[in-house]
Write a structure and sequence with these properties.
The chain is of the alpha/beta class. The chain folds into 2 domains: about 1-265, 4-Layer Sandwich (Nitrilase/N-carbamoyl-D-aminoacid amidohydrolase); about 270-475, Rossmann fold (3-Layer(aba) Sandwich). It is built from 17 helices and 20 strands. It has helices spanning about 15-30, 55-70, 125, 165-175, 190-205, 265-285, 300-310, 330-340, 350-365, 375-395, 405-410, 430-440, 455-460, 480-490, 495-500, 505-520, 520-525; strands at about 1-5, 35-40, 75-85, 95-100, 105-110, 135-140, 140-145, 180-185, 210-215, 215-220, 220-225, 230, 235-240, 245-250, 255-260, 290-295, 315-320, 345-350, 395-400, 420-425. The strands form 4 sheets. The chain has a 7-stranded mixed β-sheet, with helices on one face. Strands 6-7-8-9-12-13 form a 6-stranded mixed β-sheet, with helices on one face.
Length: about 550
């Protein structure tokens, strides 16, 4: 039988919009001769719904919407994800479920058994786990229908498993010979390859075909890459969906042949695509059409502006140069050149009058005190005030431009360069920022030459808040800093482990770790960012603010 994968981009809570996508793709699949179409985890309500599931009206809309979908497209079987009421003793009122729709009605319901609580996941907070799962018969096969994490506990793949049960193994032992998995599996660097290897391990171990349809799109900090897969019994990919865009993919369940749609390859290209998609969806799903970016002439704001221009169109981006007393003419020129290359609107607003006024107001209170970081931060906060004023006046969201390296050690100013509604590159280390900038400049289509000025790539990074300032005055070289941050933030290694692994000076490592711990209060006041690493700052990394560091 011809089976379709409906890789859609749902919006959380948009039942009419999500159901319209499901109905449209189902009709297209039916017209193409498919007998079954699969949609992602919680595709009816969008993932992750979080505490919206506590609203009875939200839960009721799930069932009502699924029944409408079934009635609208009775000629093809549909599997889609929804929230259903729970009947358990756990105190949780709902379950994460999948429905099989046939002949205009719901004929089978399966609920998720494994509820992840690591990283960005907190499903035990919202859902009750299924106590058991069953098979259903379709096109001569006994189908094992699983939901995302249910397929992530194969004992031959993991050195240490998180759960005592393996739903796939249980369904196979019960007679299942075809594994279906509907997922909302977020992107991070290397995730697509990891996911493919996991599914291949299941296929080879049980000698069954494995089908995974994945959500695509950005929801808050998460980006879902799609990249849906079908694997044969040997673990070979025989059908796949595109990365970072909606798609409709067909395969034959008997011949195990299917469509191989091109996926984006390479780390830089994948991360860039994720950031563009995450920015576009965050803005549009929150109701913003225009973005404002402070352009310093540096590499971080340049990359952020490039991403924004591609995400929402250059006509919807405003770049703002805000020179201060220590800004170089070169930085002003670089900011203007970038704006011209991107064809975005550019405004030049000096902060000097505001900075002088602040200093005059504070002079009586600061009498006898030496100038220090206070005066530097006043400059940054003056810029933040201007950006937010423009945001209010034009109804545009401010995109902050700080990278993961800066956010990690607190090399950023609260209510200054941290202002904004979305921190586009806050999960991108500085070394990766440079790699992405070079990728942007090397892409086909840059007929007029590099988009990001060469000077922005070559000059030493500087906040330009005091004479001759460089980032290296306060921080280790970014190659060292980023290696330390990766080991500490993503892998929780100790200072001694990090120093030994890289041959770094132990005191340098300890100083960086102390900076990371002390900056927690800043990070918890930062705008949400787009997750592209295995461990991003934000709700996937929950550390106390008031705590003593032993680093």
């Amino acid at each position: 039988m011809k089976i379709a994968l409906g890789q859609i981009n749902p919006t959380v809570g948009d039942f009419s919009g999500n159901s319209a996508k499901i109905i449209d793709l189902s009709r297209r699949a039916q017209a193409a001769g498919a007998g079954l179409i699969l949609f992602p985890e919680l595709s009816v309500c969008g993932y992750p719904p979080r505490d919206l599931v506590e609203r009875p009206s939200f839960v009721a809309r799930n069932r009502e919407t699924v029944e409408c979908i079934a009635a609208e497209v009775p000629g093809i079987a549909i599997i889609c994800g929804l929230v259903t009421p729970a009947h358990s003793q756990t105190g949780k009122s709902v379950m994460n479920s999948a429905a099989l729709l046939r002949d205009g009605k719901i004929t089978f319901l399966q609920s998720k058994m494994l509820l992840p609580t690591y990283d960005v996941f907190d499903e035990m907070r919202n859902f009750a786990p299924a106590k058991s799962q069953e098979l259903f018969d379709f096109c001569g096969n006994r189908m094992a229908l699983t939901i995302c994490e249910d397929a992530w506990n194969d004992k031959l793949f993991w050195p240490k498993r998180l759960y005592t049960v393996d739903p796939v193994e249980s369904l196979i032992h019960a007679g299942g010979n075809f594994v279906l998995n509907i997922s909302a599996s977020p992107f991070w660097i290397g995730k697509r390859e990891f996911r493919r290897d996991l599914l291949a391990s299941i296929a080879r171990r049980h000698q069954v075909p494995v089908v995974m349809v994945n959500q695509v799109g950005g929801n808050d900090s998460l980006v879902f890459d799609g990249s849906s897969l079908v694997l044969n019994r040997e673990g070979e990919v025989i059908a796949q969906g595109r990365s970072f865009e909606e798609d409709l993919v067909y395969f034959d369940s008997s011949a195990l042949t299917g469509e191989m749609h091109e996926q984006i390859g390479g780390e830089e290209a994948s991360v860039y695509s994720a950031l563009v998609l995450g920015t576009r969806d965050y803005m549009h799903k929150c109701g913003f059409q225009k973005a404002i970016i402070g352009l310093s002439g540096g590499i971080d704001s340049a990359l952020t502006a490039v991403i924004a221009a591609e995400a929402i169109g250059p006509e919807n981006v405003i770049g703002v140069g805000m020179p201060g007393p220590y800004s170089s003419q070169g930085s002003i020129d670089d900011a203007r050149s970038l704006a011209e290359n991107l064809k975005i609107r550019f405004e030049l607003l000096s902060i000097n009058p505001a900075y002088d006024a602040y200093r005059e107001i504070l002079q009586p209170v600061f009498a006898g005190k030496k100038e220090d970081v206070t005066e530097e931060n006043i400059q940054s906060r003056a810029r933040g005030t201007l950006l937010m004023a423009l945001s209010n006046k034009f109804g545009a969201i401010v995109l902050s431009t700080g990278n993961k390296s800066e956010l990690g050690v607190g090399y950023c100013t609260l209510y200054g360069d941290m202002v904004g509604g979305l921190a586009v590159i806050s999960d991108v280390p500085k070394t990766l920022v440079y790699r992405l900038a070079h990728y942007v400049n090397s892409r086909d289509g840059n007929a007029m030459g590099p988009v990001i000025p060469q000077a922005s790539l070559e000059k030493p990074p500087s906040a330009e808040l005091r004479p001759n300032q460089k980032d290296s005055d306060s921080l280790p070289p970014y190659e060292i800093l980023d290696a330390i941050l990766e080991d500490y933030v993503e892998d929780s290694h100790s200072a001694e482990q990090i120093a030994a692994a890289h041959g770094f000076d132990i005191e340098t490592v300890r100083r960086v770790l102390r900076m990371v711990d002390r900056a927690e209060y800043k990070r918890q006041q930062a705008a949400p960012g787009i997750k592209i690493s295995p461990k991003a700052f934000g709700y996937g990394r929950r550390f106390p603010i008031a705590a003593k560091s032993d680093a």
